[in-house]
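Late entry, magnesium ion complex.
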Amino acid sequence: MVTTATRPAAKPTIRQTRLMINNEWVDSSDGGTFDTINPATGDVLAKVAHATPKDVDAAVRVARKALETGPWSRMDAADRGRLMFKLADRIEQEAGELAMLESLNCGKTITDSRGDVEGTVNTLRYYAGWADKIEGKTVPVRGNFLSYTLRQPIGVVGQIIPWNFPLLMLAWKWGPALACGNTIVMKTAEQTPLSAMRVAELAIEVGFPPGVINLLAGYGETTGHAMVVHSDIDKIAFTGHVDTAKLIQKNASPTLKRMTFELGGKSPNVIFADADMDKAVEGAFHAIYFHCGQCCTAGSRLFVERKIQKEFVTRLAARARQRKIGDPLDEKTEQGPQVSQEQMDKILGYVQSGQKSGAKLVVGGERVGSNGFFVAPTIFDDVKDDMDIAKDEIFGPVVSVLPFDSIDEVVDRANNTYYGLAAGVWTQDIDKAHTYAKRVKAGTVWVNCYHVVDTSTPFGGFKMSGQGRENGEAALEHYTESKTVTVKLG
Ligand code: NAI
Ligand code: MG
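Prediction complete; structure with ligand written out below:
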């Protein structure tokens, strides 16, 4: 399973480690810093400025000024779009370096990082195209009036992102916010501040006016919290754990900010006996092990029709044993480290819990090596729905196999969770596929594929997997206020 390959010669340069406020790079107001780590080795990569509540306030003030009176407030929508296109172009030119930086700080394989940079560019271009197409309506009303609606920016938006897709999450949040004319105060995840800093440098370079984009680094409980309670931030967009969202919603309630949440899941991936076996094994493998399982849509509940359970699990386990784990910067590596010691410990804790509750450990279950935070691809078979490993988001390379016998049964069991982000189904029977797609409670359903996320399709969760939608036209609604203007006609 393990082949830790030789280290590549090239290493990305860490150019920025400070806060970007008003297009200037500044130290934290109290000089505080925190370490950012290379998860493949556990070594400290850099000391990064930790934003205080005072820094949050400074960022909000300049964002407010840019929104109300700066050049951004008067800029033609088409020119906003042009700036976004320029930023996408610069990111594309720096793709190689950015991908390496992402792999170094986040631990994702260089292949995956390249995919994320491409997704980042695509997202910014998609929303750049929207900038001058966000239209209101003329509304027929009773009486001699003309009524129309304007769609205007919500204002200063606070964006709090996680560590699993640092660049992509930045793009998903900057894209619609900028297209709609908002100004931004973003906090990166404490584990992965570096790639966003490079993108913020590029944003200054291509000409975003001061105050439009502000980038902070820091911990959630301090920097993030200061954003959540700030009375002059109009909206919080958050991606992370469901419990963090509950806390944010409570802490933000005195200011009644707008909120959008994307909160992960325990997504069911259902394999019917009539599925194309080769494709289904590969699909189930990718569904759980993509980016070490650190994916909000991870297909972590694998429902397999009982008559093919044995063969399916045998083949999946054989595939898992082949996985090349190692340095994420090595081209041959298929799986890098988990992002942190904390995440690795959480995952290994769930492995113990699975064993204790009586699930059958087929493969994996252990740390790989003693440097960095590597965990072997893990399969539990004969898992019961009420075990913690079948209920909680593990966010690691651990899949629970749950046998089933009929479509009605599997739909009920798939829906028996407070999550509802994504769902997969593998079958050659269109009736089963569409019945499942209609009845499963999830924001995204994949039929004979998995993790296919495009910038132009809405993405988000049913139930406690989220509020609102990102990507596609749907996101624009969450970055605009609607204003009705009524004119008395003579
Ligand atoms: P988290 O929810 O604590 O962190 C996500 C972001 O929220 C980070 O930027 C963090 O600094 C910030 N944050 C944390 N507490 C905050 C607070 N009180 N106020 C404002 N901002 C706050 O997630 P964490 O601790 O990194 O990971 C724990 C688990 O969360 C993972 O094991 C996974 O299950 C889940 N998760 C889900 C993600 C998703 O894509 N939906 C992404 C990351 C984590
Ligand atoms: Mg946390």
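The longest helix spans residues 110-130. Will revisit in the morning.
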